[in-house]
């Protein structure tokens, strides 16, 4: 299954956190296209701008297992979900945006991401890698959803290429949850 994963962060060396997360993901799953690196105004309390990106993953696990692995990578980058301020600064945020032909509704995960159609910082990088993917609830492509947000005041600008992610010929089991 192909999954569209968003990356964000605004605390510490975010580019380094992105690189480490992509390297760990590449050791476990084949990576597809990566978007450019974007900068966006933060939502929530006053804080620095965020850096954002998106990547396609080819996964052989349930989205909840992928989410658990993403939370593990966030913690490794220094994120403490128990102590952070809601919508506050963080070194790394990995969020599942959309899984091809999959809808999940539960207390731990909702796919597609429930606010994907409202957030330019998630949609613009996503459009770079999967413009024709159709949002199963909003019945529009990601490109169409992004066009609908063009007039919103949410500042989001492309900075340039994201450093090329590493590739892994064979997944390795590091310190991560089992694949089942």
Explain the overall architecture.
- The structure is a single chain.
- The protein has a single domain, classed as 2-Layer Sandwich (Alpha-Beta Plaits).
- It is α+β, with helices and mostly antiparallel strands and 180 residues long.
- Strands 1, 2, 3, 4, 5 and 10 form a 6-stranded antiparallel beta sheet that branches.
- The relative contact order is 0.25.
- It has 4 helices and 10 strands.
- It is globular.
Task: From the structure above, extract its key features.
single chain, 180 residues, alpha+beta, Alpha-Beta Plaits, six-stranded antiparallel beta sheet, two-stranded antiparallel ribbon, 4 helices, globular, disordered C terminus
Question: How are the SSEs ordered, and which strands pair?
Answer:
Elements: E1 2-9, H1 14-28, E2 31-34, E3 36-40, E4 50-58, H2 63-76, E5 93-99, E6 104-105, E7 110-111, H3 120-129, E8 134-135, E9 140-141, H4 142-148, E10 156-161
Antiparallel strand pairs: 1-4, 1-5, 2-4, 3-4, 3-10, 6-7, 8-9
């Amino acid at each position: 299954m192909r999954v569209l994963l968003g990356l964000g962060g605004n605390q510490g060396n975010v580019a380094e956190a992105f690189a480490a997360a992509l390297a760990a993901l590449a050791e476990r799953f084949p990576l597809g296209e990566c978007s450019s690196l974007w900068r966006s105004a933060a939502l929530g309390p006053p804080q620095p701008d965020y850096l954002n990106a998106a990547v396609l993953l080819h996964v052989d696990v349930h989205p909840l297992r992928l989410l658990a692995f993403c939370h593990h990578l966030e913690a490794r980058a220094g994120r403490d979900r128990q102590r952070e301020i809601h919508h506050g600064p963080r070194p790394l945020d990995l969020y599942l945006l959309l899984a091809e032909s999959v809808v999940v509704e539960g207390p731990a995960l909702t796919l597609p991401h429930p606010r994907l159609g409202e957030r330019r910082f998630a949609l613009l990088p996503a459009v770079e890698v999967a413009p024709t993917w159709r949002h199963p609830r909003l019945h529009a492509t990601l490109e169409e959803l992004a066009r609908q947000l063009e007039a919103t005041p949410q500042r989001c600008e492309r900075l340039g290429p994201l450093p090329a992610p590493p590739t892994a010929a064979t997944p390795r089991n590091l310190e991560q949850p089992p694949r089942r």
